[in-house]
Amino acid sequence: MLPPAPLTSRGEQAKTQLVAAAMTLFGEKGLHGATTRDIAQLAEQNIAAIPYYFGSKDGLYLAVAHYIADYMLRALGPVFANIDGLLAPPVLEPERYRQSIHRIFIKLAELLSQSETLHLSQIISREQLSPTAAHAIIHQKAIAPMHRRIVKLVAGYTGCDPNATETLIHTHAMLGEVLSFRIARETVLLQTGWSSIGPEQITVIQQVLLQHIDWLLNGMRAANTR
Amino acid sequence: MLPPAPLTSRGEQAKTQLVAAAMTLFGEKGLHGATTRDIAQLAEQNIAAIPYYFGSKDGLYLAVAHYIADYMLRALGPVFANIDGLLAPPVLEPERYRQSIHRIFIKLAELLSQSETLHLSQIISREQLSPTAAHAIIHQKAIAPMHRRIVKLVAGYTGCDPNATETLIHTHAMLGEVLSFRIARETVLLQTGWSSIGPEQITVIQQVLLQHIDWLLNGMRAANTR
DNA sequence: GTCTATAGTCGGATAGAC
DNA sequence: GTCTATCCGACTATAGAC
Lengths: 226, 226
Fold this sequence. Notes:
Helix content of chain A is 80%, strand content 0%. Chain A contains ten helices and no strands. Chain A binds a DNA duplex through residues 10-11, 14, 35-37, 46-52, 56-57.
């Protein structure tokens, strides 16, 4: 008997594996540090498959960027839907907004700590340091929508103007707290003596972050209703 | 008449200029993205001067790492001296520690916003993403000493245990707020619509950060003396 | 569509003149 | 010490067999 027809064609599978391998190596070594040879080898595909399916190494990199943006949207989609429900009129009591902010920060801390997303966040971070076309893709598809919603939630709880630059800066600083555990991961490990950031470590981090968010939100709220 | 003897020999000057050019290009494009040809051209030096003075491209990169660590120590030296004075017995009233924390955060925000330090912080950030030997140099010489002192100050103000991992995490999260304005600089620019982070922008950022630090410190203090 | 072989380019390091 | 010329290796992309 013939083996069952594969759910995805061989070509599709090759593309998928190349994108996965590319994300790993671009994440670890950066766009210039990773070579097409290594990517093809890790993906167990032919080197020539890269120009064939993606046009060029840069094309593969852009495909990775799209994958990252889509992954983030998939991961955050439910949270976004929930937030959009909250943000629709009528205006709710502040406590609802605070809970939603907690939810998204927990989700972010979780996402940023999972080992599956390590390479993803390394690529995003490098794009922030020297943006290419990939940055625009990820920013527009995923980062900006998230940022916008969080700013509105923060404004909803604190009573700040959601369009004021200052509200944006406050929100960005809060997000910085989560991000630092991914971006300055190496410093955290060296200072704490942890060998890795596992489930117990994530719990500690999440608790600290939620406390911080409450202190900050209440500080802003108090400053605003003074 | 002969021209006056140069204060630094020609060789020393070549080295200095190569390190400066290397910092710029390594910052902009990363270790693999920057080429020795481009570095030599920007430094207005011969390509062969790189292997001659630094052994190799990697040697030049390490020289840049040492330069960065020394630069940070020079910039933070006075602040460190001041902190060490505060931290020596006897124990002072908490307010003194809070002021010192303010001082170092203002200094950090300033440092991280100056255009001269842009490439410096890009290199440090990339080293955090994928650490090389350069990371160890910078961490040991500059980052760890700074971290240690800030943790002690935070402990001094809040009454937390300076050796507890949690205190470290709290401090790291606070530092993340400052760092995010450098590391996620691109997001800040896109979200605010700013074209660059100039003096007025730094002022806004510093004010927000100091507010946050006070809210966080007081939150920790209250939680600890409850 | 997939693979092998190879072309063409570029980057880092070196040899040797001055 | 400094510079030019060049080598060698590595990388991406392509041409063409299957």
